[in-house]
Amino acid sequence: MSTSRRSADIELAIPSTQRPTRLEGYPSFAQFIASDSDAAIYRKYAHLSARNLLYLQSELHELQERLQGLDREDAKDENNQDAQKVARNWKYYSDPANASACQHRGLQAEIRMKIMEYHEALLLESRILALSSPSSRTLHAFRRWFNLHSVPKLWGRDCRLFDDEQDLVALAPADNDRLNLFLKAYFGWFFRQRDSTMRDGGSSDLFYYPQQRIQTAGAVLSITLSAVLLVGAIVCLLRVANRSMNLRVGLIVLFTCMFALVVGLITNARRAEIFAATAAYAAVLVVFVSNNFKDGVKA
What we know:
It is built from 10 helices and 5 strands. By secondary structure, the protein is mainly alpha-helical.
């Protein structure tokens, strides 16, 4: 999880014996979420939202049918000058004394309000669908805190508020960097640290995984791997400079495949970016071997 002070993942630790500063329930729950943005996990009520959109859609469909009915009635008599004027001239359409125009305007006002409500609901739903689900690590810590000592923070129906994992969304942006995820999954013990600022009386302490430390470690590891793959390839090619060309080409193929594998696995590069980076890396090695070969021929 991450806080407004810094980004971090959390994990529950041992219970704290510190005296509570607020009541358990909504007060402590709100403090927990406010203190850590990764704890901003809420229900999206996907079923209710879909049902609301369906109702709005049906209401609009009904209004559309009514409007088309009025249009058909007006089109029946081509000699109806009043209908022709209302259809072509705003002055007649907005005339409060014209009953047909008033009927059209009243229906159009209903449509205007309903379609605004419908479009707003659609746009909001699209934004909700774009939100990611909480990570399994974050959700596990969140649920353990919520049900600490088998006593949920909220009672009544709300005690099962977060049971449906498919209906939960995280408001904080997820860290999708593959290298960062790898470091947290397999070397989290090295990065985690205890933070006393989240202590909530008798609730719990938390282990944090500071995002800045993980990102720094990932950057150092990426730079190291890049340097090793480039310098290591050059050193190996120098060592076999007097050997057969087939061996040198084989080493180029080997290091190029290793480079593509590393870029594809530990970065979020797209396919085109992987191809471009691999091609550039291979070109450097080919140019190096070519120059070295020419120097050897001249000698």
